[in-house]
Specification:
single chain; 16 strands; alpha+beta; 323 residues; 36% strand; dioxygenase; eight-stranded mixed beta sheet
Length: 323
């Protein structure tokens, strides 16, 4: 039994409207679900992905209107990657970023792949990574009505970077509890720092990697707008998720128990460096009870919130996601 790769990454925004504008109009991702934070339904939870929200393509944002700025540091998820089809696509994105005045570092190389490190309007730390030579987990398909080039469009999530002061406890959880194997390392872009370690699971490849950075010189990160809340890894089905719950118990890792998020089931726990991991089932998916042609246009609530729809909608700022 192994994890199949990255399922989704969830981050924080202070403004759902500006977030929607950037991720759909600039990055060309599709909003596949406009919902609410199930733990606080007074704020939005937005889900961006490929054409139908395939597992492994989903970047989500919790809206926290009063979120302060992020103070980057340790014990955190410090990089989220988005896959594009090939090296040629990166040239398209350089031109687009320049057109929309998106802060970026140009095309560089990382772990043998061409990448562009860039930031959104809230300084979310993002990377476009080329799938030119990917032989692992397949990517998704950009939405044909995307605001960006479909040919060069984002096809899913790539490697996630963790930054910790002490690697050993996190390595132990990745390799001894979860199904990851260390396969490579590459030099840190920061002078006099240790090499960044590369771990893979499942079929491997761009959509199944965790990169681990050790920074003993940094304080603990203070999260805010532009920070990442958690990373989720793919589990085939409910039965396997229950087996993973038992594995966490056997390894004395406190966990949330299985939580029904309606579009998938989830299991949350923190590894020893206090980074929040989630294990999520591939199904039933984001097209549940919503027409694929109209995903994300209306406020979608799981059935257990439907009797509160009027109350919930009255507390949300209007957000037009039909254009």
């Amino acid at each position: 039994m192994y994890l199949k790769g990255i399922h989704h990454v969830s981050a924080i925004t202070a403004n759902a409207s500006k977030n929607y504008e950037f991720y759909t109009k600039v990055l060309g991702m599709r909003l596949v679900k406009k919902s609410v934070n199930q733990d606080d339904p007074s704020v939005y939870h937005l889900f961006y992905a490929d054409e139908v929200g395939r597992p492994g393509t989903d970047l989500t944002f919790f809206e926290i209107p009063n979120a302060g700025r992020t103070h980057p540091g340790n014990n955190s998820i410090t990089g989220t990657s988005l896959r594009v089809p090939n090296n040629r696509a990166l040239a398209y994105w350089i031109n687009r970023f320049n057109q929309y005045q998106v802060e970026h570092d140009g095309i560089t190389e990382e772990n043998g792949r061409q990448v562009i490190h860039f930031r959104d309007h809230e300084h979310q730390r993002l990377t476009l990574v080329s799938d030119e030579n990917n032989q692992g987990v397949a990517g998704g398909k950009p939405w044909k009505q995307s605001h960006a080039s479909v040919e060069n469009g984002i096809i899913g999530l790539g490697p996630v970077k963790l930054t910790v002061p002490n690697a050993e406890p996190t390595i132990a959880v990745l390799t001894e509890v979860l199904s990851f194997k260390q396969v490579a390392s590459y030099p840190s872009p920061i002078k006099d720092q240790e090499d960044i370690l590369v771990f893979v699971t499942g079929e491997g490849g761009t959509g199944a990697e965790v990169h681990l950075e050790v920074r003993k010189d940094l304080p603990r990160e203070r999260p805010g707008r532009g920070s990442v809340h958690h990373v989720a890894f793919r589990v085939e089905n409910d039965e396997e998720l229950e087996k993973w719950r038992q594995i966490l118990i056997e390894n004395r890792l406190p966990n949330s128990g299985i939580v029904d998020r309606y579009y998938f089931k989830a299991l949350y726990f923190r590894e020893p460096n206090r980074i929040l991991f989630e294990l999520s089932t591939d199904g039933p998916g984001f097209a549940t009870y919503e027409d694929v042609d109209h995903l994300g246009e209306q406020l979608a609530l799981p059935p257990f919130f439907e009797d509160r729809r009027e109350e919930i909608e009255s507390k949300l700022k209007p957000l037009d996601t039909t254009n």
